[in-house]
Amino acid sequence: MSLMSKLLMSTVTATVALSANAQPDNKLLVKYVKRAVVKNPEVTVKGVTVIESKTDERLPGWTILLTTMDLEYQKKEIHAPEMMFVKDGLITGHLVNLKTGNDYRDEIKPTVPQSYYDDAHLLFGNKDAEHKILIFSDPQCPFCQEIVPEIFKASRENPTKISVYYYHLPLLRIHPVSDILTRIMHVAQHEGKMDAVEKIYSLKIDPRETDMTKILAAVKSHAGYSVTAAQVDAKEVKAAMNADEMAAGKMMVSGTPTIYVDGEWDKMRNGYKKLIK
After folding, report:
1. Which of 36, 192, 229, 242 is the most buried if burial means most Cβ atoms within 10 Å?
2. Which residue, among 33, 52, 29, 55, has the nearest Cα to 43 in the 3D structure?
3. Residue pLDDT, tens place only, 136-145
């Protein structure tokens, strides 16, 4: 169980009465979070910030609030994403389709903020391309290895039509090797070695490997890219990885690959194909 899971516990049935407005008073949102979301008495709820308010045609009459909960735990500040569904003075964290069993909480994602499309994360294509694709990925994830290189290829071949913005989200419990691999990719990207970034997706390596020397040698052999341990361990590189992880949290991303096309979540991960027809 993750630290966040220990701190928070949402419930499907918890609802509280709110005002009839689609955008409830912030004090009521804080009250709701204290009563129905944050169950750990050691966690203090400092506030709730609504990042985005949206609707969904599958949920007529409901307003979906994508929020950040500002918490304090053991004197540390924590900013945790939370989704809320509001309708007719009621609020809940879960809406489940009885026919399919699907929780709409897992079907909806925030819209990508414009600030996420920055030069530091532009991997392929032109910054003024007609369409923007944003990716959260781990190069050792089998689904990523199948899908992400194809998106890279589409952007390389259509740079004026598609730009790719890339965020690292290594799944360290499954692929500890990705800790070092993603940092190598970050250094390579900022050296302009985009080919090395792409080749790391086809690297065959023990997913549990953590020996820096072995990983650097494997990358050099496979991708022809040389980098030092000092470069990979640099503070600014680790800070960039942490920033990408925080960005994923704000976007309520928990798995890879998570892909957005022109700001909206591409659940089927194949939306890029329609852009190059």
Report:
1. 36
2. 33
3. 999 999 999 9
Looking at 106, 133, 156, which one is the last position of a domain?
Answer: 106
> Domain range holding 38?
3-106
Does residue 147 sit in the same domain as residue 176? yes
Domain stops at, among 106, 123, 150: 106
- Secondary structure (3-state) at 42: coil
Say which CATH number the domain at 210 has: 3.40.30.10
Q: Is the pTM of this model over 0.70?
A: yes
In the chain, alpha helices (H): 3-7, 26-32, 142-157, 178-190, 194-199, 212-223, 229-232, 235-250, 272-275
Provide mean pLDDT across the span 60-78. Answer: 94
Same domain, 60 and 126: no
Q: Which pLDDT band, with edges at 50, 70 and 90, does 25 fall under?
A: confident
- Please tell me whether residues 172 and 73 are part of one structural domain: no
Nearest residue to 168 (alpha-carbon basis) of 135, 205, 190, 192: 135
Name, in order, each residue with C-beta under 8 angstroms of 260's C-beta and a sequence gap of 6 or more.
Answer: 109, 112, 133, 134, 135, 266
| CA 117/CA 120 separation, integer angstroms | 8
Q: Both 123 and 93 in a single domain?
A: no
Total domains present in the chain? 2
DSSP state of 33: I
Dig out the tokens for 101 from the structure: 């069993």
Q: Are the CB atoms for 166 and 152 separated by under 8 Å? A: no
Which residues, other chains included, contact 230 with Cβ-Cβ below 8 Å and sequence gap of 6+?
A: none
* Residues 177/166, Cβ–Cβ less than 8 Å: no
- Give, as one character, the DSSP assignment of residue 259: E
Query: Are the C-beta atoms of residues 62 and 53 closer than 8 Å to each other?
Result: no
